[in-house]
Target: (2Fe-2S) ferredoxin
Amino acid sequence: MTTIDDPRPAAAPAANAGTLVPTLGGQYYCDPAIFEAEQDRIFEQMWFCAARGADLASPGAFRKVQVGRESVLVVRGRDGALNAFLNVCRHRGAMLCTEDAGTVNRHLRCPYHAWTYDLDGKLKAAPNLGSLTDANGARISRTEYGLVPVALREWLGYAWVCLADEPPSFETDVVGTVSARLGDADAVENYGVGGLSVGRRVVYDVKANWKLIIENFMECYHCATIHPELTEVLPEFADGLAAQYFVGHGALFGEQVQGFTIDGSAGVDPIPGVSADQDRRYYAITVRPNVFVSLVPDHVIFHRMYPMAADRTIVECDWLYVPDVVERGMDLDRSVELFHRVNVQDFDACERTQPAMSSRAYRAGGVLVPSEHHIGDFHDWVADKVRG
Ligand code: FES
Ligand SMILES: [Fe+2]
Model:
């Protein structure tokens, strides 16, 4: 059990309009012991968005993902449903799949001694299996010696997995978070995210702690400084003081802006269900611990973070469009370029910050200005989880 000191003042003064409030101390962003506590108490306990279901189209298609300290396989079964398992052979523990993704031919076969599992995880075959017994002399149970299952839910077209023995409520923690941010349970349904197609995917290997990426996404104090293209499209983001509204309320496109594109030109075909009050607006939602959803009238930008180490996070970003737009080969470059550039600008800022986390100058942390005060709730949440 790790003992973690919180260098913030025990009783932080109540924040008012002009108050600076303390952040987490630098150790939270670079100490491997804290990262391990986060893996244990956050990533291995909560619902974690693992993979796009459509990437696993046919039976046997799999994706290997890192969830906390575990390697997890998400696999399309023969019945068409997705399953998830720990990527560990029940014989002597060899990793079943070492590739990040692929398709197996009917079974998952361990390359070490050839124990073979059905796509539903049951042990199907092993050399001399018929003549083997367990310690009590009973025949080997194909379920008991099957792969260890992991809870899985599909929502918005993604497979979300949870390693907890008793997973928390998906409806409350995931669906409820999105509904609360949008102020309406049906608002996200209008975008039909599950039925959209991936028009583009970019994977970023970011040399920064996962929390720096979340904190950056939660505030727009930086927008005027580093996002010239974004603030052209969303002029209110140029106002650092108004920018606390970045999350949730739906930022209005500029008057001359025709679409959410790099040059403000018109986008592609709009998503049919988007309502009049969602038109010409940008919504951003953070779903702890590893997802950002950004909604605009003609596409959805879906970020998944995979924390790999205290100072490294892989971010996979999907640009999702109406399927017909992708199938017809419409030009997506102008809309992809806008948020790709935002991503690069944001991740550069996070990488610029990461090395300073171990500096003595940041041992007691930094400060949050008023438009960033809501990040304090995230810090309190992390600190509570880490201290256990
Ligand atoms: S470790 Fe997998 S078959 Fe032996
Ligand atoms: Fe940003």
